[in-house]
Design a protein that fits this description.
16 helices
């Protein structure tokens, strides 16, 4: 029976890892559809190569930083217990690699390839796993400290803060240090729209992410005996709440409509195992509305050229999710309890401040040492030709 449980747990978390791995194709197509045609190839290449660099960094350094586990031992040892620890690494790697995938969308269309890969290695190897270890592995005694102050530990079941808020708040300094895309904001105050290249690809990316998210959330239980149907239903309700709010407030704009479910799912990650489905619906709805309002504000008023809106979507909706777990997770509002707003506020603030500071350090150093941005000529030509020497439709372009 013990062997059967070990095998079942390994298969369970392996399926989760595969579902979240598939989400990275969603990141790729979401970015491909949002950027202009001359940057589509770059969008696809970045996500795949970022994932590969993330794998090496997390295997060699990051997983050990977060969980104290090293893989530099014999294969016989690694294969023990049906290789569950290795499969668990695979699953958690897909979470870690989501952070540079998030950042990629914010800095699209003008970032150099090499510096971003270096940033990915540093972020996945050190920055992300330090906070991951704090939130999910009792590192540095921070959770004990939070509990001593508030009565409960900081709760983040599937990463509203650990993954999404950290990714979004790391992206904000990168976007600010890079500056806006060429001609996005003119000196006379006018703005160039820079419209998406493909709404169908944008929608495809959003759908892939949405479907994979049920592996992201449900499989965060990590073992079969801890699986919760409540997590699945709450994820569904938050997705729907985000979609409906973004549709109404975004006035049927397809970009907002297809980011709405993602906003809801970002927000529900933290408390999806605690909330009542109605609480999850409200959490998703607030997230969808937040994304539309803040995306419009940052782009049009603050002139922060965050191409995919990753700071509003992941940074702010993730922040809201961390707080929402402390509201709708309480028994007073139909939740299971074991969480309070004070603990969630403190844990969320720690994650946001850590990511914001680390983002300015990592991208600030890279900017000073080697530069972050393509030359004006390369940006005008497009990252596809400037970096990869081929466009998304080379045969058609050759015929022209």
């Amino acid at each position: 029976m013990d062997a059967l449980k070990q095998g079942s747990d390994a298969l369970f978390i392996l399926l989760g890892a595969i579902m979240v791995l598939a989400m990275h194709s969603g990141f790729a197509f979401l970015e491909l559809g949002t950027v202009r045609k001359k940057n589509q190839v770059n969008a696809l290449v970045k996500i795949l190569v970022d994932f590969s660099v993330s794998t090496v960094a997390y295997f060699a350094v990051g997983y050990g930083v977060a969980y104290g586990t090293s893989f530099f031992t014999g294969a016989e040892t690694l294969a023990a217990k049906n290789g569950y620890e290795l499969v668990k690494f695979f699953f958690l790697l897909t979470f870690a690699a989501a952070v540079p995938a998030i950042i990629s969308g914010g800095i699209a269309e003008r970032a150099r390839f090499g510096p971003q890969l270096i940033a990915t290695a540093v972020i996945v190897g050190v920055v992300y796993p330090l906070f991951e270890g704090i939130a999910w592995n009792q590192a540095f005694g921070v959770q004990a400290w939070v509990k001593s102050l508030t009565g409960d530990e900081f709760h983040d079941f599937a990463g509203s803060i650990v993954v999404h808020a950290v990714g979004g708040w790391l992206a904000l300094p990168a976007v600010v240090l890079l500056g806006a895309r060429s001609n996005r904001y003119r000196r006379d105050g006018a703005m160039s729209a820079h419209p998406p290249s493909s709404i169908p690809f944008l929608a495809l990316g959003a759908w892939i992410l949405t479907v994979g998210w049920f592996g992201f959330n449900v499989m965060s239980a990590q073992t079969v005996d801890k699986i919760s149907g409540l997590v699945a239903v709450n994820s569904l309700m938050a997705m729907v709440g985000g979609t409906l709010a973004a549709t109404v407030i975004g006035r049927n704009d397809p970009g907002f409509v297809h980011n709405g479910p993602l906003a809801g799912l970002v927000a529900v990650c933290a408390g999806s195992d605690l909330m009542h489905p109605l609480g999850a619906l409200v959490t998703g709805g607030v997230a969808g509305a937040t994304f539309v309002f803040m995306f419009t504000l940052t782009q049009n008023r603050w002139k922060i050229d965050d191409v995919l809106g990753v700071w509003p979507l992941h940074g702010l909706c993730g922040l809201w999710g961390g707080l929402a777990a402390g509201i709708f997770g309480t028994k007073a509002l139909g939740g299971l309890g074991g969480v309070n707003f004070g603990a969630q506020l403190l844990g969320t603030a720690l994650g946001v401040l850590w990511a914001l500071a680390a983002g300015f350090v990592v991208y600030g150093v890279l900017k000073a040492l080697m530069g972050l941005r393509l030359t004006p000529e390369q940006e005008s030509e497009g990252a596809d030709l400037a970096i990869h020497k081929i466009g998304s439709t080379p045969e058609r372009e050759a015929n022209w």
